[in-house]
Specification:
This is Peptidase. Helices cover 14% and strands 25% of the residues. The chain has 255 residues and is of the alpha+beta class.
Amino acid sequence: MRRLFPLAVLGLVLLPVPAFAADPTDGPTPLQSITSAGTSFLTAVAIAPEQPVKVSAVTGDYLYWQFPATAGQRPDLTVDVTLPSSGRSGDHSWTVEVFDGLRRRQACVGGEQSPVAATTDTAVKLGCRLRQVRSWAEPWDGDPLPGTYYVRLSSTELPEKDLGLPLDVSLTLTSPTGDTGADQGELAAPLVPNNQPGKLLTTPVPSASAEPEEEYFSVDWLPDFSSRWVWTVTGGILAAITGLIGFSWTRRRRV
């Protein structure tokens, strides 16, 4: 027993020390900053609400981002563009646009969507607040629905010699929740059905016992006599009569 006691103490000392539990007061881990942007819808960089976005670009570039939105949210975008302090030769017109998953442009109900930066301005601020995302809508309606949304930032009008000047872009996205009970409905099915490649669609085959009805006096091959048929036949008869009369007048009689 005296020999076993030192071995037990040594084993307790060599045991791995458990990791200390995280302090619940530390709060959530901050999101990683985004430092890039896409050049098209297919290469749009994914961002999340409250995630910092700081990108270095040049005038003339088209910058794309994408973010998800659920029913009840009211996405709000704020974009700050820092322009070069020197080298500009004219005014710059900017615009920020938001598209849904079907590439339909969504209307902005708040924010400066298309500001103009004067030649002496060193910064321009843009914004776009979308309507509340609905849980359902009519097929012909263009209301925002749950899904992925795309942001496009671009300079629409500027002097050609100003193309390629460096600039910095800072984007902030917030998605506050609105009145979730205003829709009074929900989507019964996805807008685009889920495709199942490789799966054959089977159609019901009529049973052999079911005998087709015999129709001996079927006249389905006859066309429907509408007003168009009446005028066509009448016109043909009149044309034939007119042709015969004209032939009789122009035919040379034998002496």
